[in-house]
Structure prediction request, 79 residues.
Amino acid sequence: MGRDEGPGEVYCVPSSGGEARRLTYQGAMPAVAGWHGKDIIYASSADEPHPGAGSPWRIPSEGGSPKRIPWGPASHIAF
Prediction:
């Protein structure tokens, strides 16, 4: 997670080093939980009506559209 361009977002950095690549543009302070295959799993308040609420999301590490995981609300998750 990084905050270089405003609210926290999910970034990916190559293990060999290099520049961080921004993956999300949700403006919703994510909490990254880990990896599942090539996807990054995180909790986020994106699309939530209340600031304290959150849901689990996943995004491919190579980029793409984030997808909400239909597990119900979660502000922090362990994976």
